[in-house]
Amino acid sequence: MSILDIDIIQRYIRTCNDGWLQGWHERNGGNLTYRMTPEEVAQCSPFFQEPGAWVNMGVTAENLAGEYFITTGSGRFFRNVILDPSHSIGIVEINDKGDSWRIVWGLEDGGKPTSEFPSHFMNHSVRKAATNGAYRVIYHAHTPNLIAMTFTTPLTAKAFTKALWQSATECPVVFPGGVGVVPWMVPGGAEIALATSEVMKTFDAAVWAHHGTFCSGPDFDITFGLMHTIEKAAQIYNLAMASGQGKILQTITDDNFRAIAKEFGVTLNEDFLD
Ligand code: 2HA
Ligand code: ZN
């Protein structure tokens, strides 16, 4: 028995590899964090090592004090997660102030949590609060079609949500709340973390202009599925715009959206309908 046999670790590794197979994680691009349940911590803790030193994050979230996260490693590659988990990923514990982490497993040979850990951490904090603790996953990927859209579409939640909803009929069912947009910012620090968590107060997903996508959800299936649905819709949007040279002859109308919402029992964000 090894920590790698534990179900939650297996499912985390599979999700990383699924993202690699989609082509969303060139080199060390992208990152995934998961807030563990107390039962999962208890299952994994016999395999924990002597903890590392506490490292301050530059951001604070009191509602995440004492939590444990599985995280990808800074500068480590998604491509290697399935082959070499103990170097590529790790588990960190958060201190009782909610402002520092320390490594309790993995990230061997001097690894650290993802460079985007502050953004993940603040997003976990707002999604945990907004969903009464249900949301556990934050996933950042370099999704090429959505990134391409950030060069051709106004950087507003309405413009992105409308373009994506109109690109595939199931989109308004999968993300009825829409997607938010964060303007271009320097990645990796507290500033982009706070800007993203502001957007995540309202949305399950945030577009990072000219960079990628952040998605949140209760589990890997829903969160990965959200990323996949958004990126596929962006691909369809780009194909339609390119092949039609920017000219759209017909699309899904706002009344069509209202009919979908009624049939599927979802509440669409009315801010995005005219
Ligand atoms: O981990 O994706 O945003 C590398 C990145 C930074
Ligand atoms: Zn990135």
Topology, element by element:
Blueprint: H1 7-22, E1 31-35, H2 38-44, E2 55-56, E3 68-72, H3 78-81, H4 85-88, E4 89-94, E5 100-106, H5 117-130, E6 137-141, H6 144-149, H7 157-167, H8 171-174, E7 180-182, H9 190-200, E8 205-208, E9 212-217, H10 220-243, H11 254-264
Parallel strand pairs: 7-8
Antiparallel strand pairs: 1-3, 1-6, 2-5, 3-4, 4-5, 6-9, 8-9
The chain binds Dihydroxyacetone and zinc ion.
Zinc ion binds at residues 29-30, 140, 142, 187, 211-212.
What does this structure look like?
With 274 residues, the chain is of the alpha+beta class. The protein has two domains: 1-115, Class II aldolase/adducin N-terminal domain (L-fuculose-1-phosphate Aldolase, 3-Layer(aba) Sandwich); 144-274, Class II aldolase/adducin N-terminal domain (L-fuculose-1-phosphate Aldolase, 3-Layer(aba) Sandwich), CATH 3.40.225.10. The chain is 41% helix and 16% strand. It is built from eleven helices and nine strands. The chain has helices at 7-22, 38-44, 78-81, 85-88, 117-130, 144-149, 157-167, 171-174, 190-200, 220-243, 254-264; strands at 31-35, 55-56, 68-72, 89-94, 100-106, 137-141, 180-182, 205-208, 212-217. A nine-stranded mixed beta sheet has the order 2-5-4-3-1-6-9-8-7, sandwiched between helices. Strand 7 (180-182), helix 9 and strand 8 (205-208) form a beta-alpha-beta unit. The longest helix has 24 residues, at 220-243. The chain starts with 6 loop residues before the first helix and ends in a 10-residue tail after the last helix. The model has no long low-confidence stretch (mean pLDDT 98). The structure holds Dihydroxyacetone and zinc ion. Zinc ion (ZN) is lined by residues 29-30, 140, 142, 187, 211-212. Dihydroxyacetone binds at residues 28-31, 114-116, 140, 187.
